[in-house]
Amino acid sequence: MNPQEAAEAANINSFQMRGSFMDHPSEPGKMWIRKDVPAWVRDRLSDMGYTLELKERTSGPITAIWFDRKHGSMWGAASNQGDDYGIAW
């Protein structure tokens, strides 16, 4: 994936470890999963014993900067989950 595709891709929020930024306890096996995650992935995770909660959003906005050292360029990307953008120079 390029940076923009990665920022927009379906993602998963695991509660495996205690939250350091969000105040939530460790809940092994619990996952929030975006509704656009393919059914085969959801089925596989369920078969592995995970408890899935389907959500519209599983995280805040995602932004990224990719430093393409080979070509001497930078790529900025942002998800469509907020008013964020990537800037590099």
Short description:
By secondary structure, this protein is α+β, with helices and mostly antiparallel strands. It is built from two helices and five strands, in the order αββαβββ.
Write the layout of secondary structure elements.
Layout (H helix, E strand, L loop, with lengths): L2 H6 L3 E3 L15 E5 L4 H9 L3 E5 L7 E6 L4 E6 L11
Parallel strand pairs: 2-3
Antiparallel strand pairs: 1-2, 4-5
Characterize the structure shown.
It is a single chain. The protein has 89 residues and is an alpha+beta fold. Helices cover 17% and strands 28% of the residues. It has two helices and five strands; from the N terminus they run αββαβββ. Strands 1-2-3 form a three-stranded mixed β-sheet, with helices on one face. The chain has a two-stranded antiparallel ribbon with strand order 4-5. The protein starts with a helix and ends in an 11-residue tail after the last strand.
Note the main attributes of this structure.
alpha+beta, 17% helix, 89 residues
* H and E string: HEEHEEE
- How many extended strands? 5
* DSSP helix fraction: 10-25%
Radius of gyration from CA coordinates: 16 Å
Describe the biggest sheet?
A: 3 strands, mixed
Quote the beta fraction: 25-35%
Question: What sort of overall outline do the alpha carbons produce when their principal axes are compared?
Answer: elongated
Mean pLDDT: 83
Structural class of the helix and strand makeup? alpha+beta
Secondary structure tally, helices: 2
Instruction: Report strand order across the widest sheet.
Output: 1-2-3
Uncertain runs: none
